[in-house]
Amino acid sequence: MTVYERIRVEPISGALGAEISGVDVAGELDAATIGEIRQALLEHLVIFFRDQELSVARHKSFTRRFGDIFVHPNYQLGQEDKEMVYLLRRPGDTSVAGEKWHADTTMTATPPMGAILHALKVAEYGGDTLFANQYLAYEALSDGMKEMLDGLKAVHSDIRVAGPQSDVNAKRSSQVRDDANWRPTVNAHPIVSVHPETVRKCLFVNPVYTMHIEGMTEAESGPILNFLYDHQCRPEFTCRFGWKPGSIAFWDNRCTVHLAVHDVFDRVRHMQRTQIAG
Ligand code: SIN
After folding, report:
1. Superfamily for 8-276?
2. Annotation says 189 is catalytic
3. Closest CA to 254 of 210, 213, 204, 208
4. What's the CA gap between 154 and 141, in Å, rounded?
5. How many CA atoms within 13 Å lie on the side-chain side of 190?
6. Each residue of 42-76: pLDDT tens digit?
7. Residue 262 is among the residues annotated as catalytic for this protein
8. Per the count of CB atoms within 10 A, which of 118, 216, 224, 236 is most buried?
């Protein structure tokens, strides 16, 4: 375990996740503090901050300390600022963005390394976010399964979550592109990924974007992928974060999956998110 000098780091579960205190995210942070935040992210996979006042400009400048801002291809409809994604859940919505386990935007050629999500308005209870550690998910597989997956790639596409055929806009306030000119983005990634910074192996599939194993049909690869989807979010690999206004979650998108719990019902939940290019 790293000894931190600039920040306080308190794990929130045995699997992943730590709450960081002693930092004003909107402030002018020196390189040593940013270095410790990055180290905490690598060590805990998802880190949380509480009670942060974060303007759009400050949210973006904090994000840029970790890399370039990734521009999402499907959100920001009619928005001038393409670098910020707003996730809004209003009474009457029958679906929320991110309600199934996923890593973000994995259909892109180079998926984002991380995301920084800031709570603008949240309900007193409900609307938590769950995260799952994909190093642990990989490590818990049998040697036989690890051997079989080694070298295989899976094809990822955004066809289920954007475009006219997805039909998501009728169900929720967070709207995505569904115009006739929309085309799916499709790319293949290794099922077992090696994290570029920690050099640890992790599972890299998810039931939102992954379509099939490369070189196999959906029917052939379905049983293997369905096993991995059930396995990757076993309770002992997870943590759960309850939001308050001003809370922030910063996750490493390369070695985690996450899910927004769809239990806000008749209340409003409004979040603002940047993503960091991979
Ligand atoms: C997301 O999937 O990026 C959003 C998660 C959330 O709203 O809790």
Report:
1. Clavaminate synthase-like (3.60.130.10)
2. no
3. 204
4. 18
5. 15
6. 999 999 999 999 999 999 999 999 999 999 999 87
7. no
8. 118
